[in-house]
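>> received
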Amino acid sequence: MKIQEIIDKLNLNVLTNAEEREVEGVFISDMLSDVMTSAKAEEIWLTVQTHTNIVSAANLVDISAIIVTQGKKVSQATIDLANRYHVIILSSPKTTFALATELIGIGVKSQ
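>> returned
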């Protein structure tokens, strides 16, 4: 499934430049070490973390996009770094659980 389709279906806020990418699954964790060791390329990552280190972790694994949940505010420094490294950051006021359920409902599966 394409990122833009997910953005449209889940009514997500786009915080960074969003190039078209494919999404093959979903990964959920608030621990960067989990992302770096267990997430797979082309997954969409759900987290409440907003600091600049999420960009590095996503870039390392080649995450398709990060969705910051629960209405957490993402700093301009994080957004600027994400744009620099072409990491897509999206946001939603919904809980991580609600978004995971919606992703499964539209056909995105955990790998």
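>> Residues 3-105 form a domain with the Udp-n-acetylmuramoylalanyl-d-glutamate--2,6- Diaminopimelate Ligase; Chain: A, domain 1 fold (CATH 3.40.1390.20).
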